[in-house]
Amino acid sequence: MFRGRHRGFSFIELFMYLAILCAFAGLMSISASSLSENADKVVAAEADELAMWLSDKMSEARLEDAVLKILVSKDPSGNAVLLMTWLSNPSRQSEKYTSSSVVIRNEEASSYSFTYDGRWQTMTLAMMFSVRPLPGRKAAMRIVTVSGAGYVRVRKN
């Protein structure tokens, strides 16, 4: 019998090492794809939530023949903050919309103030917001648009 130094791995040891490595890589790819799917769901849900909030406020203005103003500003992280005030009813509380789970950007760079007249059902300056995943996550961007006639639409970009 040969009792020298054993150098290298046997074929079976090498095969087991590769099998464990492949299994680990497979698990990592599954978790990465589920993170991507989760980011897509978060972006889609937040875009739908923003569209619903805008639609609800414009519907309220329509029912009350009210005028509302939406001011768009940015928080310190660069995320859009929408502040809605009722011009025809100053005693009514202002409302704010922002998100910490996605990045919302005002795509109408030239304007940060929008007015909706419920009596005439018109929006002075159409609005367009992009809803993007947080940095470091991959997901499709959604676009929320409000036309001059007050129609709200969400589309995948």
What does this structure look like?
- With 157 residues, the protein is α+β, with helices and mostly antiparallel strands.
- Helices cover 34% and strands 29% of the residues.
- The chain contains one helix and nine strands.
- The protein has one helix spanning 11-64, and strands spanning 67-74, 80-86, 95-97, 103-106, 113-117, 122-124, 127-132, 142-146, 152-156.
- The strands form two sheets. A five-stranded antiparallel sheet has the order 3-2-1-5-6, covered by helices on one side. A four-stranded antiparallel sheet has the order 4-7-8-9, covered by helices on one side.
- Strand 2 (80-86) and strand 3 (95-97) form a beta hairpin.
- It is rod-shaped, with a radius of gyration of 26 Å.
- The chain starts with 10 loop residues before the first helix and ends with a strand.
Tag the structure with descriptive keywords:
9 strands, 5-stranded antiparallel beta sheet, 29% strand, alpha+beta, 157 residues
**Widest sheet, order of strands:** 3-2-1-5-6
What does the average pLDDT come to? 86
- Termini separation comes to 70 Å
- Supply Rg: 26 Å
Low-confidence stretches: none
Provide a count of the helices.
1
Strand runs, count: 9
Which percent range describes the beta-strand content? 25-35%
| Helical amount | 25-40%
Structural class determined from secondary elements: alpha+beta
Secondary-structure element order, N to C: HEEEEEEEEE
Task: Give a short account of the largest sheet.
Answer: 5 strands, antiparallel
The global form is: rod-shaped
